[in-house]
Specification:
Helix content is about 35%, strand content about 25%. The chain has helices at about 15-25, 55-65, 95-100, 110-120, 145-150, 210-220, 225-235, 290-305, 315-345, 350-365, 365-375, and strands spanning about 5-10, 30-35, 50-55, 75-80, 80-85, 90-95, 105-110, 125-130, 135-140, 155-170, 180-185, 190-195, 205-210, 240-245, 250-255, 260-265, 270-275, 280. It starts with 6 loop residues before the first strand and ends with a helix.
Length: about 375
């Protein structure tokens, strides 16, 4: 680079490129590190073409403002969510009930990444670099397996879950009807079918949280046998199923960095911040991981843009205010997702009765149900 940037972003995934675009829009100079070794398969960025994320209305608004929202075929609106317990308990949410356009959107990750990469490549104020460069502020967006986080001496507290995720895509006999479906099983496993391919689509993204001891056997099945397992687990909700992509698997964990911001070691006046999965990781059952990461980027860009002219992007008072705000949001999501995983991840009969009664009671709860849905959508 011809001059020192204001911010160096290490990690050019969805959160990193979104942050770069937000900062460039505020006239900050950004170095975006796009080089480095490939991420390991256990990271969220390593799942290739099977990845799809549920993005909230707030995330959609953000990406639309950056002109990076995918076309309809790659961003399917969810009009209804159906959650099934293991003993007839169930909850249904609908966009009509909430008086909104959609509950969320299931977005094809490769399509979104292509749009963000193109926008960042041509945005004034962003320079892509192969290696990190000195800057007052370094933001680490490398994912949960971040090397930079370890180099900074920041601990990453990991609590493994007793399941691993298996992801793939399916072609279904019946159209998905813009419905996201999730099943909790008596064995403590969770299966999600997320609609893809637009409103008339017959393809779904699958995230199946299964017990660790079952993963090797399921991954070893041929495509037809694996599709038959999914057909049974989904109670034939979408008719006959056929695999439309390879399978990927990774361990599930609850994880949090001990510090999300601080002074850069060995560089007086410089600071760092961790964003997205480099700072936190949660169970995918609520589909909120990327939404929280995009929230990290949005809030950091907002505070940097609003700072006084004399204040450096590395100002620790500002960065600690950002960390407090984002930890509050993270704690709220962590409590919800970990609580659900603990409740549905145990097979004891008394818990099974309690959780299924709770699902059905919640489905009839009226204003409480609407408020919880609104919180999950980022609307209230």
């Amino acid at each position: 680079m011809t001059a020192q940037p204001d911010v160096c972003i290490r990690g050019a995934g969805i959160v990193g490129r979104t942050l770069a675009l937000l900062l460039a829009r505020e006239k900050l100079q950004v170095a975006l590190v796009v080089g480095g070794p490939p991420r390991p398969a256990a990271d969220d960025a390593g799942h290739g073409d099977v990845r799809a994320y549920a993005l909230s209305p707030a995330s959609r608004q953000l990406l639309q403002a950056l002109r990076c929202w995918p076309a309809e075929a790659d961003a399917t609106p969810v009009l209804e969510m159906q959650v099934f317990g293991d003993q007839q308990g169930q909850v249904r949410f609908s966009a009509a009930m909430q008086k909104v356009e959609a509950l969320n959107w299931i977005v094809d990750v490769p399509a979104l990444e292509r749009l963000l990469a193109e926008a960042a490549r041509f945005a004034p104020g962003i320079e892509e670099v192969a290696e990190p460069v000195p800057a007052p502020l370094t933001v680490v967006c490398e994912g949960r397996a971040s090397r930079t986080r370890a180099e900074l001496g920041v601990e990453f507290d990991i609590t493994p879950y007793p399941q691993q995720a298996i992801a793939t895509r399916l072609e279904c006999e019946l159209p998905h009807g813009q419905v996201a479906r999730q099943w909790f099983t008596p064995a403590g496993e969770i299966l999600a079918f997320l609609p893809l391919g637009g409103p008339q689509g017959r393809q779904v993204a699958v995230v199946w949280s299964v017990r660790r001891e079952r993963v090797a056997g399921l991954m070893a099945l041929d495509d037809a046998a694996f599709a038959a397992e999914l057909h049974q687990a989904s109670h034939a909700a979408l008719g006959a199923l056929a695999l439309a992509s390879p399978r990927a698997s990774w361990p599930l964990q609850l994880a949090e960095a001990s510090r999300w911001a601080g002074p850069m070691p060995g560089r007086p006046g410089a600071a760092f911040a961790l964003a997205g999965d480099a700072a936190h990781a949660m169970h995918p059952l609520a589909g909120q991981g990327l939404n929280v990461g995009l929230g990290d980027a949005t809030e950091l860009a907002r505070l940097l843009a609003a700072r006084e002219a004399w204040r450096s992007p590395a100002d620790l008072k500002l960065l600690r205010a950002w960390e407090r705000a984002r930890r509050t949001e993270w704690a709220r999501m962590k409590l919800a997702t970990d609580g659900l995983q603990q409740l549905f991840g145990r097979p004891e009969a008394p818990l099974a009765l309690l959780r299924n009664w709770g699902l059905s009671a919640f489905d009839r709860s009226g204003p409480l149900k609407s408020r919880i849905i609104g919180l999950a959508m980022g609307a209230v």
